[in-house]
């Protein structure tokens, strides 16, 4: 009988964790402005270190939330003021297995450190429009390279 109770408690814990993940995602995404976005969190191994998640545009910030996290706060915040796209490339090597085929990787520089983000090719245009947009009178960030390879 103890084994059945243990299995029941384990199943209830897993279902509770899944419920919390879905409720968290609903809370974060309820106001719109959401894109699927992966961020490279580690560069120790080539092609590895990508974490799936979603980004939310809030004013001059792109807030990135991990897909499988219980945190209500974003894991990373990219400010439009200090962000510039350095280069664009297609997934290479191991990266092709960890993200959809139509995704593009953008290497960006920010105030803190370089960051690599991956998103759908159709999302890149909107991201670049948001990046170049600025309130009247403010300097608009520039793209670091205009000679990108055709994607």
UniProtKB/TrEMBL annotation:
Transmembrane annotation, as ranges: 6-27
Keywords in alphabetical order: Membrane, Transmembrane, Transmembrane helix
Pfam families named among the record's database cross-references: DUF2550
InterPro entries, per the entry: DUF2550
UniProt key word Transmembrane: yes
Protein name stated in the entry: DUF2550 domain-containing protein
Organism per entry: Micromonospora deserti
């Amino acid at each position: 009988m103890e084994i059945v109770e243990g299995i029941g408690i384990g199943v209830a814990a897993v279902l509770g964790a899944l419920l919390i993940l879905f409720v968290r995602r609903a809370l974060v995404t309820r106001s719109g402005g959401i894109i699927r976005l992966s961020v490279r969190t580690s560069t120790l191994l080539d092609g590895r270190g990508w974490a799936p998640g979603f980004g939310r545009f809030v004013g001059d910030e792109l807030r990135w939330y991990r897909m499988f996290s219980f945190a209500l706060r974003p894991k990373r915040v990219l400010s439009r003021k200090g962000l510039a796209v350095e280069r664009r490339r297609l997934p290479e090597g191991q990266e092709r297995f960890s993200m959809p085929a139509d995704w593009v990787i953008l290497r960006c520089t920010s105030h803190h450190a370089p960051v690599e983000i991956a998103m759908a090719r159709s999302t890149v245009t909107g991201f670049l429009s948001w990046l170049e947009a600025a309130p009247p009178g403010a300097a608009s960030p520039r793209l670091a390279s205009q000679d990108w390879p055709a994607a």
